[in-house]
Amino acid sequence: MPHTLRAVDRDDEALAALKMLAGFHDDITKDATRTKNRLRSVLTQIHPALERVFAGEILSRTLVLDSLIHYEGPTKLAAAGRGRVLKWMRNRAKKDPAALAIFAALAEQTVTVPGTAVAELVIPQLAANIKALQAQRDTIAGQVEEMLESFPLAQVLMSMPGVGIKTASNILLSIGDCQDFADAAHLAAYAGIAPTTRQSGTSVRGEFPTRAGNKQLKNAMFQSAWIASNCHPASRDYYPRKRTEGQKHNAAVMRLARSRCNVIYALLTRRKLSREIPARTIATAA
Length: 286
Fold this sequence. Notes:
This protein is mainly alpha-helical. It has helices spanning 13-46, 48-53, 62-71, 74-80, 82-90, 98-106, 116-149, 152-158, 165-175, 184-191, 215-231, 233-244, 249-270, 279-285; strands at 196-200, 203-208. It has a two-stranded antiparallel sheet. Helix 1 packs antiparallel against helix 7.
């Protein structure tokens, strides 16, 4: 069935360069995540309460990383005292909610765990590695942004609410100029965001999300739909309506992604910037 095959690679120089940069960006992001997890693992062994403070995206903050590089760990943070550390932090940033949480966590543990001294030799090195990786990632993101500025289709995609630089690059790397797809339904099926019907003999069990499709494209469309549901009026109305109909979070976002797929297909094939679409048009598309 030759008509079902998609192009594996393209001769477009801009897309090839974008693919290389985007892949490098993903690798560095994964390295940064692994290093953060390693740092949190070290903190868990010597000071679990302090590790809980650094859960989530707090370890991405430059001020927090600088404080771990400078004070090395819980021992020197406690020895320096709250006043001195807060003064050191305020000289580098006006406000950071993690600062007060650090000292609340330090007060929860009164014993020094064996191996703390060695762990505090590792902590500043891991923090410095995270900071360096994030700087590299930001540099590559800037290069991707510069490249996309001269790529017309990227500007077309980013004119749509919820689509940023990373999302636009992932979509373009997956489908190019969208000329390989007969219609929006074909694109949705390729992305894996079109619901499928399960049946056995004469038994039909309704629609379910498919596990097939291009994972990179599916993730990009899902993430952009979720972002749009928080910032775009029509999408913001669509999402809760699907929730009230009994659909779970992922299913509601996937429905929104499917309706937005029609818009993405139209934008890329017509090479026109996005314009505001009335909410009832989006609802009808689903």
